[in-house]
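My main concern about presentation is that the manuscript never shows what a single data entry looks like. An entry of this sort, consisting of the sequence and the corresponding C-alpha cells, reads as follows:
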Amino acid sequence: MAVNIRGKNYLKLLDYSSEEMRYLLDLAKNFKDMKRAGVPHKYLEGKNIVLLFEKTSTRTRCSFEVAGMDLGMGVTYLDPGSSQMGKKESIADTARVLGRMYDGIEYRGFSQELVEQLAKYAGVPVWNGLTDQFHPTQMLADLLTIEEKFGRLKGINFTYMGDARNNMGNSLMIACAKMGLNFTACAPKELFPEDSLVEEAKKLAAENGCTVRLTEDVEEGAKDADVIYTDIWVSMGEPDEVWETRIGLLKKYQVNANVMKLAKDTAIFMHCLPSFHDTNTTVGAQIAEKFGITEMEVTDEVFESKQSVVFDEAENRMHTIKAVVYATLK
C-alpha cells in the first residue's frame, strides 16, 4: 500500500512506522538528486511556513529555509524575541493564529510537551526541529548518510557514545530500532536513557530484527562498530555549572583514535554538530582555560579524519527536511 502522510505532524519517530520512514528516506534521495542536477522542484508554490526558534541553530534553520524556498514556498523565521508565544499569548492561542496564516509550523526549543501542544491546536502540520527529548529531523539525515556510506541500514552496528539520555541518545535509539540497526549506548549508567524508552526501543528492535544494548564499557561498546556517533556533553539551555560534572563523567567516552581502532576498519564517525573538537569557539576556549582540556567529545584528529562524515550529515539535513515538509504538505 502506498504511503500517504499528508497532514501528519512530525514530532517524534515513535509516531512513524518503519515504512513511513523508508518513504521519507527515498523521497529525500530523489530531492538530493534533483538539487545536485539543478532540476527545479517548486512543488509547493503558494504555500507558506513559519519557523519558531526558542533555541538558535545553524543547520536546522538553514535546512528549513532552503528546503522551503526550493519547494517554492514563503518562509517566515521568528526568533525568541519576535513573537509573544508563551509570554503574552498562550501556546494554544499562538498555534491557532499561526495555523490560519501558515500551511506548516516548525518549532525548535525546549519542551516536547510544547511542540505537542502546538500540534494539538494548529490545524496544520507541525515539525519538531529539536526539543529536549527528541530530535527527529536529525535522525533522517543520519540514516540517509549511513545508507549512502554502506548501501544498507539493516544489520549495521551503531554505537552512540556520551550522554545517552539526551535528545540525540533517545532519538538515535528509536531510529535504529525502527530501521534494523543494532544500537549500543556507551555511557556512564547515570546517563543511560530512561528505562521506559529503552523497553519500548527493545520491543521495536525485536520486531525489526535488530538489538538494543546499554554498556558502560568503552571497549565493549566500540568493538566491531560500523558507526561511532557522539554529541556535545552539555546541551544548549543547560546551566554552565554542569560542565565540571559532565566532563568528569564523560571524559573516558571521548571518541579518539583508540576508540576508532576498536571499531571496524570501514567504520565512520558521525556527529550532529556543533562540535567541541578544538578551541576555535568561544565555549571551547573557555572550557580549555577553566578545565585544561582542548578537545571534548571528539578529538580533532578523528573529527578531521577520512572516517568523519559530519559534513555529509549536515548537508543531508536539508534534503531530509525537504522530504518531510513536502510529504506532509503536498
Notes: The CA atoms of residues 51 and 61 lie 8 Å apart. The beta strands are 48-53, 74-78, 104-108, 126-130, 157-161, 182-186, 212-215, 227-230, 268-271.
